[in-house]
Amino acid sequence: MTTVAAYAAPAAKAPLERTTIERRPVGEHDVLIEIKFAGICHSDIHQAREGWGEAIFPMVPGHEIAGVVAEVGPGVTKFTVGDRVGVGCMVDSCRECDQCRAGLEQYCVKGMTGTYNAVGKDGEPTYGGYSTHIVVDEAYTVRIPEGLALDEAAPLLCAGITTYSPLKHWNAGPGKKVAILGMGGLGHMAVRIAHALGAEVTVLSQSLRKKDDGLKLGADHYYATSDPETFEELRGTFDVILSTVSAPLDLDRFLSLLRADGAFVNVGAPEEPVSLNLFSVIGGRKTLAGSSIGGIRETQEMLDFCAEHGFGAEIELISASEINEAYERVLASDVRYRFVIDVATI
To answer: Is the pTM of this model over 0.85?
Structure first.
């Protein structure tokens, strides 16, 4: 076991504080990663504050990890020391079910093992990327292309793949009208990716405050959902609406914006239940759907796609001592558009 520095929440809703944790020895197929940067995802806050249910403490959040391979196990074939690598939201799965065999490890029948707030096959809790090092099986590690800066690449391991996967699955591309609901950490990546895929992109945001940013990121149109006229003007417009909002929505209102056979896809996960009038989907044969992250193959595909198109995330680099302040700013939507921790400051 190796002792490393980390930032952890000692209990639900408690401020994160500097501590040390134990990392397992490097096994046959493991890589030891020296973490350089770790993104702050809204999911980190949900889990550290038990918004999604009972959690494991102490908790070291962080599933947007970018770093460099420092050591490899004797059976490792994918990576060598010095390689630029990333780790996303999962570090293991059963590897045997139909989903795992199909490259959909995120939907493992037995449940994927989260990068943090989970229990590994060894019975020990997993600890995430707010730490200096992590040991991960090479099968759940991805390569970060040279064209991506590590700090801007870190948020792609969650925000990037969480938006890329559904946009690909629902065929966002030329001839398709795609709306991105919310212009935060996930939303700004969704705009970039949908634009790069060739779709006509509209941002739906509470206000027009970020309109200039949205247009620069690749949106063709930008509307305020606080304006009732938006829902009249855009009724029956979109093939796909991707919701990145983690607060309850009036789903019936937004479903009215879909064309027949359109899909409203949720990647934001509110802590509260939502309600729905089923006639909102029956009329127009519409789909109300959800999507998680992507599998390992698709995550690598996403990274290569972003590098090919020359973009990472829009970030604000912070020191570890600013994590608690950053959490409050995320909740206040005061970040453009992803906080990234400089792990050298832990």
So the answer is: yes
The total number of structural domains in the chain stands at: 2
The pLDDT score that the predictor gives to residue 272 is: 87
- Whether 142 and 199 map to the same domain: the answer is no
Closest CA to 239 of 276, 268, 265: 265
Q: State whether 37 and 134 are in the same domain.
A: yes
Q: Are the CB atoms for 62 and 93 separated by under 8 Å?
A: no
Cα atoms in the Cβ-side hemisphere of radius 13 Å centred on 274? 19
Pick from 90, 108, 106, 112: which is nearest to 98 by CA?
Answer: 108
At what angle are helices 296-309 and 159-169 packed, to 10 degrees?
A: 100
CA atoms of 250 and 274, how far apart (whole Å): 8
Q: ∠ CA(316), CA(322), CA(325), 5° rounding?
A: 95
Q: How far apart are CA 314 and CA 306, in angstroms?
A: 13
Q: Which domain holds residue 321?
A: 2-157+313-345
CB-based contact 302:156 (threshold 8 Å): yes
Per-residue pLDDT tens for 28-78? 999 999 999 999 999 999 999 999 999 999 999 999 999 999 999 999 999
Q: Which domain CATH number covers 33?
A: 3.90.180.10
**What letter does residue 273 receive in the DSSP assignment?**
-
Amino acid found at 108 = C
Q: Do residues 132 and 165 both lie within one domain?
A: no
Residue 130 has phi, psi (to 5 degrees) of: -80, 60
Contact present, 173 and 201 (Cβ < 8 Å):
no
Residues 318 and 247 in one domain: no
Same domain for 219 and 78? no
Tell whether the model's pLDDT for residue 3 goes beyond 90. Answer: yes
Contacts of 279 (CB under 8 A, 6+ apart): none
**Phi-psi group of 48: left, alpha or beta (phi > 0 → left; psi -120 to 50 → alpha; rest → beta):** alpha
Q: What is the C-alpha to C-alpha distance for residues 200 and 235, in angstroms, rounded to an integer?
A: 16
